Amino acid sequence: MDSHELVLLSPYRYPAQYAMTMSDEDMAAWLNGHTALWHPALLWQAKGPPRIEATYDHETPKPGHVYALPETPPAYLPDDWDERVKQAGSLVFRATPDREATLANLTAALTAEGAPSPGWKAGLDRVPTEIGPFFGLAWGHLLLAALAEAMEHENLLEPESFWGEVQQAIALLGGMTYTPRVPAPSDYDAAETYAPDSPDEYGTPDSALADASGLPDDTGAKVPAIADTQEPAGADGQEPVVADASGSSSDWREPLRAAAARLLSAREVLYPVTIHLLDAAFLDEAALATGWPAGFDLGVTTNFIVDTATLERLAEQAPNRFAALQAAVQNDSAEICGGSYLEREDPLLPLDSQLWNLRHGLDRARELLGVEIRVFARRRFGYHPQLPLLLTSNGLTKALFLTFDENAGLPSYANVVVSWPSPDGKQVDAFARQPKYADSVDAYFNLGHAWFKTTREDQAATIFFLHRDKPTSVWHRDLMELANLAPVLGQWTTFSRYLGEVMPSEYPSMMTADDFHFDFLSERIAANSDEPVSMFARHLRTRRRIDACWTYAALHRALAGIRDTLDVEDALRTIEKQAETTLTSPAELVDLEKRIAAALADRLQARAEPNQPGYMILNPCGFARRAVLELEEGTNPLPIGGIVKACQLDKGRLYAVIEVPALGFAWLPREGPPGTPTMAVKFRVGDPTTNTIRNDFLEVEVDPTTGGLKAIRDHKTRINRLGQMLVFNPGSRMVAQTIRVTSTGPALGEIVSEGFLLGEQDQVLANFRQRLRLWVGRPLLEMRIEITPQQPPAGYGWHAYFGARFAWRDERATLVRGFNGMGYITNHPRPQTPDYLDIRMAPLTTAILTGGLPFHQKQGGRMVDVIMVPEGEKATVFEIGIAVDREVPMQTAWGYVSPLAIVPATKGPPHIGASGWLFHIDASNLLLTRMTPGILEASRERERPEVSDAITARFLECANYSGQAEFRCVRDPQRATVLDAQGQFMVEANHAGDIVHLEVTPNDLVHVQVEFSVPIEPPSEA
Q: Which residues pair with 658 in a beta bridge?
């Protein structure tokens, strides 16, 4: 064949105006057939680019044709059609869903005995780096035609000049002679439309495209050329003959770049505005075992979604690969999108855990990469309404608002970029366009339609490809090859650059917790966790213990000032990191707790009277607490009065309810004076005849049949607030075997029920023991539940579990779930929260304090289950609290899980009194999460003395109030500042005397740095 035509036989055209859905095999065979026709071995001396024509037009094969025939779907052609092709002197090869198999079929057809010899048969031996640019050009030609068709516009590509440049490239590649046709004066002049000196979409002159030393990347910087610099041998094995009639460079890629430039010029007539292309990949354990995405290898801008811990492992295990990634990130040819140190179940973890994960992740990423993380992203679900607040507090204003978990969901938006608000008003620019997966054949078969659709509908045309844990399709590399020729498809860019150029086009209202759907329970069960539920409750208490240590250390610093010798910050950071990375309770925490609490107690008792044995009780919370003490010794009860609200001796143990001031202390003697009378109460604390216990706030009745909570009533309204029983979902009966009132006061009312959970066949599913406690002077019911499964649950975690079912009397009641301190009205069937569930029926409120148990499921309109033992759960003991009529339930929930330091003392009460506060906040809606010693302000790093006389407090507004608050200090501050979470200065805080004035907006997160003595700066030389 001296000249031949290339035809893909298919009843389907490439989708343009409308998307088309076929089986993956059908689409893959179509794409592979079209791509294979652009092999340089076939393109050489062909009459023109490959065409797509219907099979019925070629039932009688035409001479001088090379046919690509997809093997799926089956073509309706005569049975002897292959023989007719041979008789016509033409050629046919089958296109399969596999690229390599298709190319093998092409090779077999061209090299078959007696087959015609169209094109350049020696080109079949060319390596992929030499064939790839032609396949990339094939995509540019195909997409341009699809865009022109969809826009119903003439395709302005000048075919003869375009095809001449393709032929010239093959001639240079193979060392063959090619004489270009002399264009007529009226022929299309590409230089006028795509002038070498005019900037392209990247802001780079087009002449850079012809630079043989390299190709421009998205920023205009040169990246190394991919192909070898040596000239290929000619078809006869001799040195190649330079076939460029113009006498310019003999680089065979130059004509391809010129051809791609013609495609770009024709596309810019159709759509002259920038088209943004984003290529992202997960950098996880699976990716570490394989190579980089094709775009990264070819120097095309690539984004990686990865947590910082994975970056650490990459740096340790594959330093060379990490060095390549680091260099690309620093050159802005790649970007790391992340922020979190670990990808874990952050929405259900304490706020301070979330802040640690984010802050530590950002700091370590900067150390590893040498640049800041600019775009927040996660592979696992990790979103909630307050996340924009946490991000902006840590210097992040851009995020990917996408979830890649199959069992999670986020609000969807028609626009690509939205302004995502948090309840306090902070906003981040969030990318919300769902990706096209790089492993999906549909993404490439319908790419032309998606390209047209985004240019027609989006404010900024955008296409987003994502690589996941599946092999990337071969056509993605073709697109990267096209990008190395010219930005025909669009501009490949980073997310930070994209979000810096594209402004939000949608401003949604504040989101609630119900807008975020996730299923960590199923994930943890699928991961064979032995604590899918109990881990959250344990970590919440561990986190509060660590924060209490930080707070005690800050209180000690506030008292000792620059003479503070406690020096526990490094040890606390080490334990904090261990607890957060493993989600366990470090063994070293116990000794550190004792050391810090003892140091603070000794400081408070420095001038106390000796030989006065007792206890120093320390409160790390920013509010006063009614706490319960259970002490082993004591023969005389404590007198009622002052901090002691109730006291009882029982079997050699002393029980006391005391009130400890906010961020303060209380001193308690080991026992009361001899002859101290027993506490008297005016009501019966425990009544065995009615299975009832009561205190001065509540009355609790236990059902004699089930052993569950039959009623909880306040003394004023006498309305039954709540009932409870233990259940096995999907069905069980709770049967009590024994019910005993084990304490009848005067300070403690306690009732214990034991029994079984029976199945439909009266088989024993589990044994249970449930203990209910009411303390005089404390408006809280304590529930300790022990479930010992005899038939462990198995299967879907939301359908098979042991749990506690709570029921209320009126379906009109509103259910509110706490989430990161804020309460949200919820209608979600699974209102997950580790904080509390609040049943509100004005004017009454009843809060279920879950103690960190996060998974709950509604049953009808007036029942909710607290899930305790699903499949795999090994814990059998759970604690839940019930509080009534709490104005700020988050404060009560916080106090329920916060520790209380009890330090044995040999001295009498401190010289300032038996109790007192060291710091005080006068707003109950401001939740102090922790205090830390020292200066947080980043800009003053060089000015810090070895021990800075300062503390930093973190507050969370948790009741949707705004206004001013007074933060009173143990000493008069000399300076007070409001900072963000990364220590950046925001505003000076007014202070007068011992008061720091704070102005707080609803749901805000505030860091206040208080300095009691400001270091004197040395005078400047000037």
A: 627, 644
pLDDT tens figures, 68-113: 999 999 888 999 999 999 999 999 999 999 999 999 999 999 999 8
Residue in the block written with tokens 């620019």: 429
Long-range contacts of range 313-321, CB-CB < 8 Å, 24 or more positions apart? Answer: 313/288, 314/283, 314/288, 315/368, 317/288, 318/288, 321/292
Give CA–CA dist 951/614, Å, rounded.
29
Q: Contact at 8 Å (CB) between 715 and 699?
A: yes
Which tens digit of pLDDT belongs to each residue from 228-282?
A: 333 333 333 333 334 443 334 478 999 999 999 999 999 999 999 999 999 999 9
Say how far apart CA 540 and CA 537 lie, in whole Å: 5
Burial class from Cβ neighbours inside 10 Å (0-12, 13-18, 19+) for residue 259 reads buried
Measured in whole angstroms, the distance separating CA 871 from the mean position of its chain's CA atoms is 26
Lowest mean pLDDT among 223-227, 256-260, 666-670: 223-227
Residue of 638, 699, 702 whose CA lies nearest to 666: 638
Distances in Å between the alpha carbon of 973 and those of 269, 331, 809, 927, 997? 67, 46, 52, 21, 11
First to last CA, the chain: 87
- Is residue 894 within 8 Å of residue 816, measured between CB atoms? no
Cα–Cα distance for residue pair 960/423, rounded to 1 Å: 9
Task: Output the six-digit token pair for 659.
Answer: 């009130």
Sequence-separated (6 or more) residues with CB below 8 Å from residue 152: none
Amino acid at 143: L
Torsion angles phi and psi, residue 575, rounded to 5 = -65, -40
Q: Provide the pairing of β-strand 780-789 with 398-400.
A: unpaired
Q: pLDDT class for 800, splitting at 50, 70, 90?
A: very high
- DSSP-based three-state secondary structure for 644: strand
Work out the burial of residue 475: count CB atoms within 10 Å of its CB; fewer than 13 is exposed, 13-18 middle, 19 or more buried.
buried
CB within 8 A of 562, min separation 6: which ones?
A: 945, 947, 948, 949, 1013
User: What are the residues whose beta carbons fall under 8 Å from the beta carbon of 791, sequence distance 6 or more?
Assistant: 759, 763, 764, 765, 766
240: DSSP letter: P
The Cα 295–Cα 84 span in angstroms is 43
Of 691, 722, 991, 718, nearest to 848 by C-alpha is 722
**Judging by DSSP bridges, how do beta strands 614-618 and 901-905 pair with one another?**
antiparallel
User: Is the model's pLDDT at 149 over the cut of 80?
Assistant: yes
Neighbours of 795 (CB within 10 A): 11
C-beta atoms surrounding 250 within 10 Å: 15
Q: How far apart are CA 642 and CA 639, in angstroms?
A: 9
